[in-house]
Input
Amino acid sequence: MELLVDIQKELPGFTLEVNFEAGMDILGLLGASGSGKSMTLRCIAGIDTPDKGSIVLNGRTLFDSKKGINLPCRKRKLGFLFQNYALFPNMTVEENIGFGIGDKKQADRIAIIKQKMKMIKLEGLEKRYPNQLSGGQQQRVALARALAIEPEALLLDEPFSALDDYLRSHMVKQLTEILADYPGVTLFVTHNMDEVYRICDKLVVLSQGKIEAKGGKEEVFRCPPSLVSAQLTGCKNFSQAKYISRFELEALEWGINLKTRHEISRQVKNVGIHAHVIEVASDEKDDNVFKCWLNFTSETPSRMTVYLSMENQTLEQGNYHLQWEITKKMWLDLKDRPQPWGLRIDPAELIVF
Amino acid sequence: MFVSDLMGLDFSPLLISLRAAVLATIVAFFLGIAAAYFVSGYRGNFKGLIDGVLTLPLVLPPTVVGFLLLILFGKNGPLGKLLMAIGTTVIFSWPATVIAASVVAFPLMYRTVRSAFEQIDQNIINAARTLGVSEWKIFWKITIPLAWPGVAAGTVLAFARALGDFGATLMIGGNIPGKTLTIPAEIFFAAESGDMGKALTWVILIFIISLIVMTLMNYWTDYQYKMVATVGRK
Output
């Protein structure tokens, strides 16, 4: 089971140029909106046509510009899950699921529909119309419809972006269970790093039509190779960096020297720090301990985002050096302590590229 | 006075008008849907031009449409010659009323259906394609049902326009009583000759016909569309 994609397509503003392969592991395509990730999926499905390149699924050429092959969408045998589900509003749930298997015998069709209804846990709602279902239920019907044709690959285009937070985590869990039983190639497109981390094994990070990073998810999340991939995998703090020695660099914008666990290259340009890895220093003499002052804060129900400055003066409104995410409890402990606060960054947590 | 008029009335304009309108609606229905499907799927550079040509009969004065048809179907016109070759002609015969009504009704059907087609969420069509379904099945099972209100509205408008045509019909059909004289023409000539009673009778009749057709069509559309959800449209 493998999907080989190597395509180019001119898009307004940039050229989409991607090259990756997907096997049995679920592959995530992570990118900001307009990065070309959905277009990549549409090209694979045959909804849009690349300008150049090739797409091969399990040895079957779906598209090859050199050989002049471009299989129409309906012959590609791919399941596509749309962001807005795209259910047929004039058909009932069972008609939706059975629509793609109309050439099968009546008895087989009924059996498949029954089995899919069981898979998505919507038994009893066969006769409902899509507008009589909730968003999460519609989503599941769309998934059942896509899987009913036994596609060789399943393409998921931001499947959770239209759901509210509660439903989303519920659906992510359900989808992971369903996907575990699915034998084909799965591509999952999203802009949400949490989703991609939860669902996928491997990851391709896209920006402006180009691949910024690819590999196993832990690896890409731990040491993203570029600024954009670091941003997309959730890193919030960046500074330009200058090489000092094999295990030390200077963070120019923060005005501090930082030690690293891993050896760095002389060409190092940037350093990044995740907002949640900063900690309160227990010993001032430790490595990577620095002083900072509180600039402003921003509050969510469970967490506090603290914006810090490296200088003893309040920066202009909205400016800060470091963004630090802590729990509410930690904030209560911290807020009345005298400033500057001594904070520390573990050398192993530095992202250098 | 009205009733006595009605008794002695020659009903041929009613039959001629209805025949022309019904046949023209059927012609416009199929050609309009086909043209709408073609243009909404067309991605070339001539979209504006093609749309313009197809809409022309709507914006031109009916007499101009009639004049062009006269040239086309006349003795020396391309289609006229063709018909002559098989020993027939349509000018000033009842098929002329159908042709004139079809041409003026067509753009209304075409435009209404096209906008209904273009309102359909393209992802729904794409979803059907990824499921391996043929374009033909997609058209009948998804496109037409989802565009149904537009198709119905276009049909009503096309029928109304076909029933009401005066200029184009007069140009190529003339006003031969019992053959090509339609209700609108009858009203014009009755009023012109001072027979206001007769004109009024026909006015009331056409009023009633139009209202009945529109009302029936509305109820039928509601009935047909009751089950179809509003989701799936942009």
In short: The CA atoms of residues 24 and 102 of chain B lie 4 Å apart. Chain B touches chain A at residues 121, 123-124, 126-134, 137, 141-142, 145-146, 227-233 (CB under 8 Å).
